[in-house]
């Protein structure tokens, strides 16, 4: 065994030990957060009306169920749902119209406009959709997000807290299209979600995510409207940062929502995750670098290989696997069902490490069928 391999082996061993410790800490934070979710009251609905903006692009798997959930909210204040797409014959818009016909008691609006206000096409949809939004509370939620009936009550209760300017929600992955979508869902549920909750609990992260961005119309106008983010890749994070710059706080509400995963190939999944990793690296480079400690299992595997399966490295590998399975079971218990297969954990975690490494080399991203170069300040430039 070369001296270099031995040195690298012990370095990865030390990193894996710290990663196992982080996994256990993240699991404890998750248990505390999920306890808050169960205790959180869904009463106390505000009188202020809310407009939910849903940017649409194509009929992805599970879309009908995801959209229908917003019609089933158990709240009493006025509610409007605005669906915005680029073309009038978008199949996602047709699905939304079908649900609206069956649920006429819920006010809806439909906006189809190809007008682009910048390189971020989702933001263009939101700018166009805002022309139809009429309530003082604005809630943005991506098309692949599924919610429970008490979602709107809890989000609005968090937004009504004095000093709060914007509310977001953590999410888990929900496989919609077979094996690769399950792999993608596992990445969200068992790595992304624990990292978000641990970061918030430690005061090291202030996320604002596309799963939910709730703020008042007044606050949105004060940060320059959606137009201020028309060329930004990490538009959700940028909105949260702009609200905090006003002296208001951003809050991760104890409201768990689902994110539909529809990846049908490794290439598709890897491209999505590489774009997300590139986005995180752009907005929080130090935090992204520190996420090396979230890869306990592949780091332990590397130490086993480099140290030639020494007893210490094998014990560490076993500990890292058990820690990961425990973390998975914590998430599954909170959601109420298994979100992934434990035997896929090694493969899933190795892919996550490859995505992490790749994020330091990628210079462009693919989004909604178009390729963009990401500038140093996070803006999008078409290629």
In short:
The protein is of the alpha/beta class. Helix content is 49%, strand content 16%.
If you had to describe this structure to a student in words, what would you say it looks like?
The chain has a five-stranded mixed beta sheet, with helices on both faces. β2, α3 (91-102) and β3 (107-112) form a beta-alpha-beta unit. It is elongated, with a radius of gyration of 21 Å. It folds into two domains: 3-35 and 291-382, no CATH class; 42-279, Alpha-Beta Complex (Spore Coat Polysaccharide Biosynthesis Protein SpsA, Chain A). With 383 residues, it is α/β, with parallel strands linked by helices. α1 (3-39) packs antiparallel against α11 (296-306), α6 (179-201) crosses α13 (345-358) and α9 (266-283) crosses α13. The chain contains 13 helices and 13 strands.
